[in-house]
Design brief:
Blueprint (H helix, E strand, L loop, with lengths): L3 E3 L5 E3 L7 E2 L10 E4 L2 E4 L4 E2 L3 E4 L13 E5 L14 H4 L9 E2 L2 H10 L4 E4 L8 H13 L3 E6 L5 H8 L4 E5 L5 H7 L5 H13 L3 E8 L7 H14 L6 E5 L14 H14 L4 E4 L4 H4 L1 E2 L6 E6 L2 E5 L1 E2 L2 E2 L11
Parallel strand pairs: 8-10, 10-11, 11-12, 12-13, 13-14, 14-15
Antiparallel strand pairs: 1-2, 2-3, 4-5, 6-9, 7-8, 16-17, 17-18, 19-20
């Protein structure tokens, strides 16, 4: 395994993510799936997943990456984040035996994607950063078969492995969980700075299409000040054309006694982002046509009309607005 450091007394340091776990023989990392076996970091879930599903690409969410095309989605077990509000905690926080999962090789995944005419394959449900080798091997094979690849990730990865990872991804939705180091430390057991560096790298130094998602949790990361600071950072570091999704939180895992996000909170964040100058802003997990629709950044007319994941109208021709001819950012 390339990203590891051999230490004394049989210990090995995993160098995939900023946790840089130092593992004794037969010890697992924070993620539960990367393990020191005989002096080498081994991915114990390679070739195993929790199931394959065919989704609309909008569900990832990716709204400006081959809209309305089917994507074959899969994930494994474990995570390198410690989010107390995890929406998929039943797979990210479990130590279940991989033998209970579906055994599916990269070749099998490509075969299924082709059979069902899926435009892309998504590494999702849990973070593909921790199943790094499995994701990359599958992505390489997808490329050979003209299938696009999508990473749904928290972006918590070290800079060198990030280069190897994202060069094989055609699109990524990165969770920017908040715009506060205190939030990341308290609620994710992590740090925000590596995430911001990953986001900047993907946008500014790769050909990978990027969209961002922030799950708004009442009284945790939904203040006007924090949302405005996040939007200003995006505008200044990434530009105005990166799509930003504000999603509604549902009580889960250790936040199961919290209040669900209401639409007024999402709408407030949407307006702040628009007023900051961001061109493509969306709300998710609560259906609303106005805030699910893509608008031309020049004339302001609707170019992709949606109600949630459902497409109601498509006013692009070869990626250009049919009303004024302006390119819509994305892949079409």
């Amino acid at each position: 395994m390339k990203y590891q450091n051999i230490l004394k007394n049989g210990k090995v340091q995993c160098a995939i993510c900023p946790r840089n776990c130092v593992l004794a023989d037969n010890q697992e990392g924070f993620c539960h799936v990367r393990k020191n076996i005989n002096g080498e970091i081994v991915l114990t879930t390679y070739g195993y997943n929790t199931g394959l599903a065919i989704d609309p690409i909008e569900k990832k969410p990716l709204y400006q990456f081959y809209p309305k095309t089917p994507v074959l989605s899969f994930g494994t077990l474990g995570c390198n984040m410690g989010c107390q509000f995890c929406q998929n905690w039943h797979i990210t926080k479990t130590n279940a035996d991989v033998e209970t999962l579906n055994k599916t090789s990269p070749e099998d995944i490509v075969r299924v994607a082709k059979y069902y005419n899926c435009k892309s394959v998504a590494f999702t449900y849990n973070d593909p950063i921790i199943f790094f080798e499995y994701a990359i091997d599958t992505a390489k094979l997808c490329r050979k078969n003209e299938i696009k690849t999508v990473a749904v990730t928290s972006g918590y990865i070290n800079s060198e492995p990030a280069k190897d990872f994202f060069k094989y991804m055609d699109a990524a939705n990165i969770d920017l969980k908040a715009f506060s180091q205190n939030f990341y430390k308290k609620n994710c057991l992590a740090h925000i700075e590596p995430v911001l560096e990953t986001i900047k790298y993907v946008k500014n130094e790769t050909d990978c299409w990027l969209e961002l998602t922030t799950l708004l949790i009442p009284d945790e990361n939904d203040s006007d000040y924090e949302i405005k600071a996040e939007c200003e950072w995006i505008f200044e570091n990434l530009g105005a054309d990166v799509p930003l999704h504000f999603s509604a939180f549902s009580p889960k895992y250790k936040f199961n006694n919290r209040k669900q996000t209401d639409f007024s909170t999402l709408l407030n964040a949407y307006k702040i982002a628009k007023n900051t100058g961001l061109k493509y802003v969306y709300t998710g997990n609560i259906t609303n046509q106005e805030t699910s629709t893509t608008y031309c950044k020049n004339c302001g007319k609707p170019v992709i009309v949606r109600n949630g994941y459902e497409m109601l109208g498509y006013n692009l021709k070869d990626g250009e607005c049919i009303f004024c001819g302006t390119d819509c950012d994305g892949r079409f």
